[in-house]
Amino acid sequence: MRMLRSARLFLLALLVAAVPLAVCPTPAHAAVFISVGFAPPVLPVYTPPPCPEAGLMWTPGYWAYGPDGYYWVPGAWVPSPYVGALWTPGYWGWSGGLYVWHAGYWGPHVGYYGGVNYGFGYFGIGFAGGIWRGGVFAYNTAVVRVNTTVIRNVYVDRTVIQRDTIVNDRHAAYSGGPGGINHPPTAQERSYMNERHMAATSLQTQHANAAMHDHNAYAKVNGGHPQQLAAARPLQAERQTAPASRPMNQGRPANQSRPMNQARPQQQPRQQQARPASQSRPQRQAQPAERSKPDSKPR
User: Which of 70, 97, 150, 248 has its C-alpha lying 20 to 30 A from 3's C-alpha?
Assistant: First the structure.
């Protein structure tokens, strides 16, 4: 019996290593636990578009795992959820023979993301692409490109690039394990990991879900070389057309679209029905007719 149980456990371990596991596969990446038995493809080399307007934060592209294997989520400019928020990218970490996904998050500092060098400010440690100054985000143009005709809050700092860069000549997309990045978290990164965090915004989740449903985004289709490496336009532009209008539309539907639009049709028919009812009352309309009787008395 013991040998049979050992054999079953051994077979189960082999299945776990060969088949990706997904526990609680909800759209919000902060609530997702994913482990895969084989490493993600290498990070593609690309140049992101310049930041078109102030207040947007660059979130680097990454390999996610879906129904058909690894797929590429394009990098994108996104609005920060609150003043002072910085984005810590998600990363794949090797643990116990599996590659485990650690979701990204928003927080007051950039925490540990496996030392994976995503570029464009995320060189393995912290973030060199900009800092918050008095409630306004200033961009480090030594790292990121911006539309200088619109964005005035810029500065140049190259020392932070040299200090916080993890060499990643192989463009590895994971930390630890064979061929992965070898950078354990520093004491400062550990402290940042324990801060209060906010999961990816609904806008980011929609962006990742759109990539998951894009057949051409999967590595088995594009051979690890996705065509769309970065979003053609910032996610804020999408939010202005659809998601950003939700706060206004959420207020309007709550007050206008359903209750008020439904109330108005109800009130208008009531008024229309009430007017005929008041006008058709024989008492009020008969009073002028009854007053005509005194006019007949002189006759």
Answer: 97
2 DSSP 8-state letter = H
Residues whose CB falls within 8 Å of the CB of residue 97, separated by 6 or more in sequence, listed in order:
17, 37
Dist. CA 99–CA 91, nearest whole Å: 10
Beta strand 76-79 with 21-23: parallel, antiparallel or unpaired? unpaired
pLDDT at position 261, please?
A: 38
Q: Kindly report the CA angle at 89 between 114 and 135, in degrees rounded to 5?
A: 125
Q: How far apart are the first and last CA of the chain?
A: 123
Closest CA to 244 of 198, 292, 202: 202
Report whether 241 contacts 206 (CB < 8 A).
no
DSSP string, 200-242: PPHHHHHHHHHHHT-GGGBHHHHTT--S--B-SS-HHHHHHHT
pLDDT tens digits along 190-219: 999 889 999 999 999 999 999 999 999 999
135's CB contacts (< 8 A; 6+ apart) are: 83, 84
Residue positions counted in the chain:
299
Mean predicted confidence (pLDDT) in 248-267? 38
pLDDT at residue number 70: 97
pLDDT in tens, 96-120: 899 999 999 999 999 999 999 999 9
- Tokens coding 274: 């009430």
Pull the structure tokens for residue 219: 């590595």
